[in-house]
Amino acid sequence: MEQHVDPSSVHFGNDTNNSPLVGRVKKLLNHRMLVGINDGRFFLGAFHCIDKQGNIILQDAVEYRSTRRTSPSPMEQRCLGLILIPSSCRSSCHVDCSIEEQISLLSLQK
After folding, report:
1. What is the b/e burial string over 68-88, where b = at least 16 CB atoms within 10 angstroms of the residue's CB?
2. Per the UniProt record, which residue ranges are transmembrane (predicted)?
3. What are the chain's domains?
4. Which phi-psi region, left, alpha or beta, contains residue 52 (left: φ > 0; alpha: ψ -120 to 50)?
5. DSSP at 79
6. Which DSSP letter does residue 7 get?
């Protein structure tokens, strides 16, 4: 199952190690994450970490982009490895997780 998540909506507070929100985000570690950016590209990789500003690091990332501006257009892909996606560039974020994890993630968006 796929769940939309807005990591920039997670506020870490002063005591980041004991925050329940941090605990929920930790459960996402190593889950497959699909991140879209403003220029139309998508990155698929294993969620590695997020910082207080909402920048995301993906491991074993693959970039997907359209080869043409017309629709439907074939997608081109290339392997990138470890990448950082700035929060200012991100347009969408989806996590591949179980139903129970989806329910838990819904509270991150409040």
Report:
1. eeeeeeeeeeeeeeebebeee
2. none
3. 2-109 (2.30.30.100)
4. alpha
5. E
6. G
- Between the CA of residue 92 and those of 13, 17, 67, 89, what are the distances in Å? 24, 26, 20, 9
* pLDDT digits 0-9 by tens, 43-73: 999 999 999 898 999 999 999 998 777 667 7
Does a cis peptide bond (omega within 30 degrees of 0) precede residue 72? Answer: yes
Alpha helix locations (H) across 42-98? Answer: none
Angle at 24 between CA 20 and CA 26, to 5 degrees: 115
Listed in sequence order, the residues at least 6 apart from 89 whose beta carbon sits closer than 8 Å to its beta carbon are: 37, 38, 39
pTM: 0.72
Amino acid occupying residue 49: C
Q: Assign 3-state DSSP to the chain and report helix, strand, coil percentages, each to 5.
A: 20, 45, 40
